[in-house]
Records
---
Amino acid sequence: MADPLALTFQEVWNSYIPDLYKFVVPIAHKDEHGKECLGSGVFVNLSGRHFIATAAHVIKDDPRILNDHFYLQNGCLDSDKPTRMLQKRAHPVLDIGFLEIADQPRAEMTQGQLHLEIPLPGSTMFVIGHPVCRIERDAKRREFIVNRSAFGTNAIDLQNDYWKLAYPVEGVCVENGAWKYGEKFPETPHGFSGGGCFGISKTERAGLEVIEYKLLGIQYSWDDVGRWVKVVPIEHWLDGALKALQSPSQQRNMAFTVSSPTAQP
């Protein structure tokens, strides 16, 4: 993938991040204590079948895909038109998995957009998810608005099984049409888990400007003291998903089949 550093933050935010938002979906689920949580996932199309790539812990207990219209009932988030899930699978060691769904979503990444190589040193990557701190509540109307958000980051450590990326202390946002600098990031990015780590490149071919979006990995954990997040490279997800294509989608709740399970990072 071409080095995307030539793109300015403003250019990325104004022109490309909003386009990437359509590939990312919120997923409600329960944690190990039965508490209602929010995570994220990325729509991916493989051989005409529809998947959501996400973190394994996001789909472990009672995952619910939140479409455009959803509600809160008895402390749980759910959609008024639930998405039919055909199967879910998780890697036996790494915190990555998928849901296969019946219907085609509004937008999907393709297999050709899955970047299977380690990023170039210094490349800027963008993590997109649904941070809990940005949920808007309207008590009068009993409405919730779950907002997507993104942050740009660079690699601290790139291993085969995981990448450690910097988690910003401050960022920028748009307020009343103007750029606002020094915006504090939340200490714990709840809601980003399962979200996509994307790369954006701009190159020129035959005199034409070409913009490419690539899904690099899936974010799954963070450290609020060290200010980093971890990502599983998408190649590990693709390996399991392609093997799942060889079996009927009616087989639910199975583990990925992998050639050589690796140590948990």
---
Amino acid sequence: MAISFVLLILMVWLAADQPPKPPTLVQKEKSKNLDKQSSFQDFLRTCKFLLKNANFLIVTIAGSIIYHVNTGQYTIMTQLMTKVLRGSNYDVDIMSSYSTTLMSAGGVIGSLVGGKIVNMSKRYKVQVIVMALLATLTSGLVLTAYHYNSYQAMFAMNVVFGFSTRSYTVSLIEILTQTTYPINESFVMTVFNATGCFVTIIVAELGRLVYNNSGGFWMLTFQTGFAFIGLLLTITISNSVQRFDAETMLRGDTQESREDTSLLHES
């Protein structure tokens, strides 16, 4: 909590509301409409548009499933380690914390590497499919490691699992901003998170029932199965790049270059 508070203070102190200049031409165009007042009817109309958008719903469901599989892996790790380390001299709580820490470290690397790759390649759908496939495979390998009581393999697979799920999330968010353009990104993410909560609650409750009635092995099987469902849904996501298309139209023949700008206050 202390670390989070320090980070909050630093963000409030150092971060600006917006960069000195819009990083893209489409963002520059959208900023012209920020001062326009929107009514409650506009709000409802936009919500309705998003909730009737098949691609938005697919992205929301797929993203929520992968998110749950990720958080589910965290929450049951102590119970899994209890079985895997039975008869050993290792402390279950310490070993499970090591495992979740390694998963988090993999997630940090996945976010950074995934963001860099997707920014360079712009191949969003390819990246989410690859990462969803990797998450499904590693979830299955964690299940296998659990079955054979190999905590070393569980540690290794959890790192890759954390990497793949966080890299998946980075690309998925970019897909949302591409396919829902020109709707405000903050609004899209708000509806995405709110809608996704319902999916996550349903999947989490099903997982709880499986774990309480059948134990860790079948819970991991449930996790792997839902990761596979998330993969199948991911494959059906639209490859539309509406924001890039708009950027190309705005550039015209000028080929104006835009530089990334910092959100930190200039000294």
---
Amino acid sequence: MCGLAGFWQSRPAGREDLEGLARRMAATLRNRGPDDSDEWADEPNGVALAHRRLSVVDLSAEGRCPMVSASGRYVITYNGEVYNFALLRRELETAGHTFRGQSDTEVILAAIDQWGADRAIDRFEGMFAFALWDRAERQLLLVRDRVGIKPLFVYQADCVVAFASELRALRQHPAFVPELDRGALLAYLRYRYVPAPGTIYRGAVKLPPGHVLRISNPAQPLPSPRPYWSAIEAAARGLADPLRGSAEEIADELAAVLRRVVGAHMLSDVPLGAFLSGGVDSSVVVALMQSQSNQPVKTFSIGTAARGHDESAAAAAVARRIGTDHTALCVGAQDALEVVPTLADMFDEPFADASQIPTYLVSRLARQAVTVSLSGDGGDELFGGYSRHQWVPRLWRGGARMPPALRRSLQAGVRALAPESWNRIFAAVEPILPRAARIRLAGDKLHKIAGLRDFSSPDSVYRAVASTHDHPGRLLATTGPQAPDHILSALNVIPLSDQVDRMMLCDLMTYLPDDILTKLDRCSMAVSLEGRVPLLDHRLVEFAWRVPQRVKWHDGRGKWPLRQVLYRFVPRELVDRPKTGFDVPLDAWLRGPLRPWAERLLDPGRLRRVGLFDPSAVQQLLGEHLSRRRNRRDELWALLMFEAWRERWDPAIG
């Protein structure tokens, strides 16, 4: 895993100037690649490529980037891993290619030499983002992996195209203007992340997953990127060709695919381990790792002393059963206090998924022993792990049929009790409830449902459920431009008729790359740890879409086939429990140790001087949370993370 940066400018410059600027851009990415760095420039054409290296495969100098192809035609700077590179290498050697080293980078270049860029990219299996300069065609190609595991940002202005693994590197280029995009701010306040392809800066974009951007002139506006793989098409193909066997037979097929995929992701020349929360997804990854390892796999988990937020005991029990070398860390409010000031630097674009804190802490813990760690991310999106996929259609049907006056009365009744009161009620009756009715943080979710207004379609209900704040414009001091809503935009182009399929595919296209994978990338890279996600191998993604819903949700449980694979290694009583995940008691911390920090950032006078937010609207949210009338942790965290980011990065506010 590495960091890349570079640019192509139409203005002439000397080699030293080109390489020097590229070096300064890449220097901001040192955490992504602490082991080595290098630059390359094409002086006549104004191209410069830079790289920061985290050595994982082929630790020798032969694996350095930027790398020139054997033909001399192509130059690449690259971030990621192509897991099938050994197979491709053997095929290329049969075709007459020879290799200096053992890196996948060299195989990528040889494959492009042999088959051309388009055909070669189709054959790469892995996670990657790279920039490729074609000296013969005088063309720059920017490429991102199929599901968006690795990031790639692009900026075009003033006869310059600049690109990098993170926005911080783009800011080093003198052509970059760090102007706040108010439309992106509104989207961020709604969803707690800035949706692709936008960024928080006007003019900077994220290259969409599964796309190639082919640039022939840096002085022209960026062309539209071309998809080489489509989640929509993968889903449509899978649904049109469903697996026909019994649920048990499909679980057997899944086990075989998982074994191959997890085995491929264990490729490494440095110490390797895995995150283990004790949930289904991470446990099945670890179990399949251990089954293919001749020594105990190193696993890592964290927990808290807060009731309802701690999975460390479950993770330890799973680790003992599987036989891993397990390390656990119990964290508290003081650990969060120490991490919080670093988040705005770690995430150089506003990001407010509070599980960023434990994700960073477990990454830091793992980095003390390994350089690569596998994660269980992706299982929920592919195999039906989110309860909302089941209850949103029911909620829409019930809400749409109910007379509006009755619906408003029921919603008012729910809001009459504070979320914490509902949580206590559900906790008291939980032992007599059926498993499907046991809902974590039930009071918060009831209040969320009670706030729904638009029952015009299941899409509108899903968008509201996915929103942290349904009317983010009310938080702003003045109404600004509104970008198209990315959830509705995604749903509008999804041709699937079944609502559950539509929601799962929308998550795969939006929430997964923009939230879950962004969190993993920034938190792991902050400590120079390579995070891998075998459940998001595109072969497994395509397989999952062939699994019928009747199998994904079977016997009243989501992720049924994944569970069946896991039960071959772990007794079901160890993993059949309410979902917790990596979480922290942020609501309590905002009322306690984080309160002074929060009140400073959201001080009315401070907000008034900047002029972005309405101080009275913000104070209402804060007051409701501190008084426990409502749990406003998510809305407040979004505001706090933005204000911390603004304080750190000082964007131009037009």
